[in-house]
Write a structure and sequence with these properties.
- There is one protein chain.
- The chain is of the alpha+beta class and about 475 residues long.
- It has one domain: Outer membrane efflux proteins (OEP).
- The chain has 12 helices and 10 strands.
- The chain has a 5-stranded antiparallel beta sheet.
- A hairpin with a 5-residue loop joins β4 and β5.
Length: about 475
């Protein structure tokens, strides 16, 4: 401890100490180049997670371009306006504040105050006090707290990526269903027109006495059945379009475009899974980092915190109680070491909690990997199986179309019944519907595979773009 009766001497002791620190004799991040590493570290690690803070580029619900709605356009609009992503962005900002709060432990603490009252035999006095405290070494208390806070920040970033992927996949699936019902409605319209043509043919033959009235009744019944299918397809299309309109927040164009032709190449069905792209794995990794930070902090509680403290006080009125001098001053500079000797088992409890958190995070990582592998295998089989069926269904469609034309010719010459012709029309409709359904099942498998493999941001062109104040890095 250093004492003097004058304020000037106490303050003169600080510059040599600061020079001593800047020379590298003591490790104080706030006075050395290590400060850059500490402040920039979260941004570098955030880049590994695929998220970085940036200027706002919020895409409002601008009117959609006329014509057709593209898949990537719809996904971009949906992720830029969905409130769940807004909430996730706010959670990141909130956790960044916790990181900054934890890092404040590296910096000096300055306090000032005025005490007024009667002190011993000196009478009444008012004493102004200024003190500065700088932690020198704490065996990992602050760094552990920073790591714990950074881990939670990275977890929020991973959850943001997960939410973006979730909204992107939901939008893509909704777009797919709109396109599916759009295609099925066109097939249903074609069926109604085809059977109405048959009905006209039957009516002409019935009016000419070449066929019985029962043929006309059978054809009329089939027209009504086709119209019921048409109405059902129209209703389903309206429901899915309403859902898509909710996601993109705009009146929709008359139709949606086909899915991008390169979607299968982007999916990489035969490529091994990169677990580092999975938000669930990233979130679990962040939890593990946070748990390790908690463990470091808890273990450090068993050791002292070494700090340097300087204080100066001066009596504004009356006598300074520290030295008995009227309006005197009293200054100190000291090296301190303090530690908690007993906390009722709090340290041991913190260590147990941190170790359990590490185990839980590792189990969550394995669980996320297992779930992703299961979903990937099933979606790959769906896509591959649908692609194989498409070849067969195309052949079936070509055969049934040829059969229908042949039956029409035979019906006009009276060698085929109207029932054969109506059944042929039904088979053509069914073949076309099965082919379109299988084609969309193939796309559905691709979309599920893309989501399960963490490639949504790449597939839908979201990498290296700004989404609600956040830049999504590749």
């Amino acid at each position: 401890m250093f004492r003097s009766s004058g304020l000037l001497f106490g303050m003169l002791l600080l510059p040599p100490f600061i020079s001593f620190v800047q020379a590298g004799a003591l490790d104080l991040p706030w006075l050395s180049e290590e400060r850059t590493t500490i402040t920039q570290g979260p941004q570098r690690l955030a880049g590994k997670l695929g998220v970085a803070s940036g200027p706002a580029n919020f895409r409002s619900s601008a009117p959609l371009r006329a014509g057709v709605l593209d898949l990537r356009e719809a996904v971009a609009i949906a992720v830029n306006r969905h409130p769940s992503i807004t909430s996730a962005v706010s959670a990141i900002t909130q956790q960044e504040g916790v990181v900054d709060y934890s890092m404040a432990g590296y910096y000096p603490k300055i306090t000032a105050g005025v005490n007024s009252g009667k002190v011993n035999t000196y009478g009444n006095s008012q004493v102004a006090t200024v003190s500065v405290s700088q932690m020198i070494h704490d065996f990992g208390k602050v760094s552990g707290s920073v790591s714990q806070a950074e881990g939670q920040m990275f977890r929020q970033q991973a959850l943001l990526l997960k939410q973006i992927d979730s909204i992107a996949q939901e939008t893509a699936q909704t777009m797919l269903e709109v396109h599916r019902q759009q295609a099925l409605l066109k097939i249903a319209n074609d069926q109604v027109k085809a059977i109405q043509d048959v009905l006209e043919m039957v009516k002409l033959r019935a009016d000419s006495g070449l066929t019985s009235q029962s043929d006309f009744i059978q054809a009329t019944t089939r027209v009504q059945s086709a119209q019921a299918n048409q109405q059902q397809a129209s209703t389903l299309l309206g429901q899915w379009r309403a859902r898509l309109s909710t996601l993109v927040g705009n009146p929709l164009p008359a139709s949606v475009a086909d899915l991008p032709s390169g979607l299968e190449q982007v999916a990489h069905l035969d490529s091994p899974l990169d677990y580092a792209m999975l938000p669930d794995v990233l979130a679990a990794e962040a939890d593990r980092k946070s748990a390790y930070g908690q463990l470091e902090n808890a273990k450090a509680q068993r050791y002292p915190t070494i700090a340097i403290e300087a204080s100066a006080n001066e009596a504004i009125s009356g006598t300074n109680p520290s030295n008995g001098i009227d309006r005197g001053s009293y200054n100190t500079v000291m090296l301190t070491g303090s530690m908690l000797l007993y906390q009722g088992g709090a340290v041991s409890a913190q260590i147990r909690s941190a170790l359990a958190g590490i185990d839980r995070a590792e189990s969550t990582i394995n669980e996320a990997r297992l779930s992703a592998e299961d979903l990937l295998l099933r979606s790959r089989e769906q896509a591959v199986g649908a692609r194989m069926r498409l070849g067969i269904l195309r052949q079936r469609m070509a055969t049934m179309t040829e059969t229908r034309e042949l039956y029409k010719e035979q019906y006009t010459v009276g060698t085929r019944s109207v029932l054969d012709l109506l059944n042929a029309e039904q088979e053509v409709y069914q073949a076309a519907a099965d082919q379109e359904t299988t084609r969309h099942d193939f796309w559905a498998g691709l979309i599920t595979f893309i989501g399960a493999s963490g490639r949504s941001r790449d597939a839908y062109a979201l990498n290296n773009t700004f989404i609600q104040h956040i830049e999504i890095q590749q």
